[in-house]
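Deliverable D2.4 — example input (structure tokens):
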């Protein structure tokens, strides 16, 4: 029983060490965008697509026919 308890402690320690190491070594990528590209994107008007769903409701008879 003592061996299993020690293995659990070793696993938790290894997992926490792996998580801490992954956070410590991870870096945020730096993306440099030319100023001309930023001005072009800002000047273009963005049109948002709109979806319209128009459906009639089923009557009680139609619902009963589906079952």
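Example output (designed residues):
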């Amino acid at each position: 029983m003592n061996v299993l308890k020690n293995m659990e402690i070793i696993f938790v320690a290894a997992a926490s060490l792996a998580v801490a190491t992954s956070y410590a070594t991870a870096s945020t990528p730096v993306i440099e965008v030319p100023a001309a590209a930023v001005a072009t994107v800002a000047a273009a008007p963005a049109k948002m697509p709109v979806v319209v769903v128009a459906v009639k409701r089923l009557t009680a008879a139609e619902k009963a026919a589906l079952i």
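The helical segments are 2-25, 35-43, 60-66.
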